[in-house]
Specification:
This protein is of the alpha+beta class and 407 residues long. It has 13 helices and 15 strands. The protein has a 15-stranded mixed sheet with strand order 4-3-2-5-6-7-1-8-14-13-12-9-10-11-15, with helices on both faces. The radius of gyration is 21 Å and the shape is globular.
């Protein structure tokens, strides 16, 4: 199978948004300014204060006669999908659920296909403005640690995008939307008509003028799916890191890279590139957290710096490699790189990369603990055994996907 390569576009305008504090006001303002359509994809959509606010703005778009579409993941939205579907339908929006989870006793049935999730978080407004990142529709302060001084928000990023690359984001959403339609309709003629109409709309869309900004940024959309884009995101990371000359700074919520990624990080550190990892310092999910910690000793011996984020949960999936930056939904772990549908934006722009790097370094300076070989020695044998067992369990899980040779 031919490898899918990134499609680069010049002339984009891309703004970094940190945490829900910046993302949700920007998203809601874009929905309010929409003139024709709103299309939202998310892994989690909670009916908390933030989720209800987003729903109110979507309702306003429906009342103005706009086309509103929402795609939810069946696992991430297991508890909320029925109510969300009802509310969105009542307001005039269309909601579709990716791989709905079975209910009742059937939910405990083992089926590897249920691990293939819609993990990307994207929104497109009027096919001209887009958001891509790692932020779910959930309040920043919901279910986060509280050390007695008040909860701190999840640390995460999204980007607001204008310019030619928006067409690729819009196209990716349309392709998935058609796939979901195929699973909800049994009328072959109707489905054929919808596909034909879709291609007509795509031709019209691509023929119209999309603004190019001068000066603009060079950017590409990176997808991961189980057909054409199986290793697109991983290969993009590998190419960037292999070519790094000064700096690799990765912030990842769930970090469990395969052999190739570990080797390329080690080679970069060996040739004098400063390699830093900003990882979870608080356990949100036992297996991922512990398995990552089991790799610390090996990574440190290769000259890689490790910082654990302690202020709250680290949810970011971003990286800076020299003058390039990546922001998106994909972790460097088996779930993201082998199973889930993901979406990242990679930006070749020194100023944008510097902005993201500054944001990460501010958190490293203020809210992390540096992991060293000496600090690892202070971990007791019980803790090290638990970490090793988690590593073993995660490797077993990878083996069930048929990709054990990559890990």
């Amino acid at each position: 199978m031919a490898r899918s390569k990134p499609h680069w576009h010049d002339g984009n305008q891309i703004e970094l948004l940190q945490n829900g504090e910046q993302f949700f006001p920007a998203l809601c303002a874009a929905i309010d300014a929409a003139r024709s359509s709103v299309h939202l994809e998310t892994y989690i959509f909670e009916l908390d204060r933030t989720g209800l606010k987003v729903l109110d703005h979507l309702r306003g778009a429906c009342e103005r006669g706009l086309k509103v579409r929402v795609a939810l993941d069946g696992f991430g939205c297991f508890a909320t999908a029925p109510e969300l579907t009802r509310r969105l339908s009542e307001m005039g929006a269309i909601c579709r659920v990716y791989r709905p989870e079975p209910r009742g006793v059937s939910r405990y049935r083992i089926d590897p296909a249920r691990l293939r999730r819609l993990h990307r978080k994207t929104a497109v407004i009027d096919s001209r403005l887009a958001f891509v990142g790692g932020i779910n529709i959930i309040d920043d302060l919901k279910d986060v640690p509280n050390d007695g001084v008040g909860p701190r928000p999840r640390f995460d990023f999204s980007v607001r995008v204008r310019g030619p690359v928006v067409l690729d984001i819009d196209h990716a959403q349309d392709v998935l939307w058609l796939r979901l339609a195929r699973h909800t309709r049994h009328d072959v003629h109707h489905t054929y008509q919808r596909v034909r109409d879709w291609f007509s709309r795509r031709r019209a869309l691509r023929s119209r003028t999309i603004p190019r900004f001068q000066p603009g940024m060079r950017a590409a959309l990176l997808l991961r799916d189980n057909i054409r884009h199986r290793q697109t995101i991983e290969n993009a990371y590998l190419r960037a890191m292999e070519g790094a000359s000064k700096e690799i700074l990765v912030a990842n919520a769930y970090f469990f890279p395969g052999h190739r990624l570990r080797q390329v990080l080690a080679r970069a550190a060996a040739r004098g590139v400063r390699v830093r990892l900003l990882l979870q310092g608080r356990q949100e999910y036992f297996l991922q957290f512990r398995a990552t910690r089991s790799m610390h000793h090996e990574l440190l011996k290769e000259g890689i710096e490790i910082y654990e984020y302690m202020a709250s949960y680290l949810h970011a999936k971003v990286a800076v490699v020299d003058s390039s930056a990546t922001v998106g939904s994909s972790n460097l772990d088996p779930f993201s790189l082998l199973l889930a549908r993901e979406a990242n934006i990679v930006v070749h722009d020194a100023a944008f990369a510097a902005t993201l790097q500054a944001a990460l370094e501010a958190e490293i300076d203020a809210n992390t603990t540096c992991v060293t070989l000496q600090s690892l020695q202070r971990r007791g044998w019980v803790e090290r055994t638990i970490d090793a067992f988690a590593y073993f369990l995660l490797r077993v899980g990878v083996a069930l996907t048929g990709e054990s040779s990559r890990y």
